[in-house]
């Protein structure tokens, strides 16, 4: 019976399936076929040989990563940078979207929205150049502080590790807050205006309308992005660390991605890098399912 219903459904939607065939083929070729390379994490791969010709080593590379003296440092930096990004970067676009949604002047609203998401299109190379111009020893900030007699000597903001987490979090927030706001504004645009009218009749002020109507109406969007954010907690960045970090700040900038790149790609230990990447992917998927289950139990909202 189920097979018959499935065939009927397939026949009814045959035109959609025909349209989807090129995309399905694209996904199979570029998303699933490369997954064969996962086997590299379990062998001692040597360039020039195929993966199947390499010696099987099992979980040796995973054990090497856990036993590495850099593992605690790399894990700490990854969780710290990702945690700060979630702590400040997750609510920021929600707040900005609410503020933009409350603006009545459409031209001003569009102008502010455009300005806010333009940094998303700036490459990290340019952002790094801006940070060096602002925070370098001879940068604008040190120059202003010295002229105001607040400090006597330039502060090495980019050369001291204690400033790195704050700088990278601020840069990520500035670069992505406007772009993330677009999703929430789209969700808010779907809220029925009659609900606001009914709220005003019931005596709700502007803050009350936001708290009791706007936020509950976009809860599913918030939960979806929160779950995806938790799943990507090990994605602490890559380009920004390599561009802004240096030898003096390595103790604070080295994350899983940069570690896998240096020891897996630069040193030619591809199996080791593949093992680190696979481990990160497994943890990410596990966190997604865990966050989804938590959301389903506590908020009665899930994406799976």
From TrEMBL:
It is found in: Cell membrane; Membrane. The keyword Transmembrane applies. Pfam families: BPD_transp_1 (PF00528). One of its GO terms (cellular component) is plasma membrane. The chain crosses the membrane at residues 21-46, 79-103, 115-135, 163-187, 208-234, 270-289. Keywords: Membrane, Transmembrane, Transmembrane helix, Transport. This is Protein lplB.
């Amino acid at each position: 019976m189920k097979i018959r219903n499935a065939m009927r459904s397939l026949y009814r939607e045959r035109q959609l399936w025909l349209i989807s065939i090129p995309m399905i083929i694209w996904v199979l070729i570029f998303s699933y076929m490369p997954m064969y390379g996962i086997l590299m994490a379990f062998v001692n791969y040597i360039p020039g040989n195929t993966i199947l010709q390499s010696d099987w080593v099992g979980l040796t590379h995973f054990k090497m990563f856990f036993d590495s003296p850099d593992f605690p440092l790399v894990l700490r930096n990854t969780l710290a940078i990702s945690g700060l990004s979630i702590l400040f970067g997750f609510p920021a676009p929600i707040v900005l979207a609410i503020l933009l949604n409350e603006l009545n002047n459409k031209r001003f609203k569009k102008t502010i929205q455009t300005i806010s998401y333009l940094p998303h299109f700036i490459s990290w190379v340019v952002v790094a150049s801006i940070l060096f111009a602002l925070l370098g020893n001879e940068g604008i900030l040190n120059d202003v502080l010295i002229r105001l007699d607040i400090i006597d000597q330039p502060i090495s903001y980019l050369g001291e590790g204690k400033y790195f987490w704050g700088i990278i979090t601020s840069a990520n927030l500035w670069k992505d807050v406007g772009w993330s706001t677009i999703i929430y504004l789209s969700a808010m645009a779907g809220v029925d205006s009659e609900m606001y009218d009914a709220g005003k009749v019931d005596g709700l002020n502007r803050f009350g309308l936001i708290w009791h109507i706007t936020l509950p109406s976009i809860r599913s969007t918030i939960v979806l992005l929160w779950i995806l954010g938790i799943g990507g907690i090990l994605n602490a960045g890559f380009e920004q660390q390599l561009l802004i970090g240096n030898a003096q700040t390595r103790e604070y900038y080295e994350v899983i991605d940069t570690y896998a790149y240096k020891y897996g790609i630069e040193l030619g230990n591809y199996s080791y890098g593949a093992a680190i990447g696979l481990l990160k992917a497994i943890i990410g998927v596990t966190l997604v399912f865990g966050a989804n289950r938590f959301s389903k139990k506590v908020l009665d909202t899930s994406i799976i």
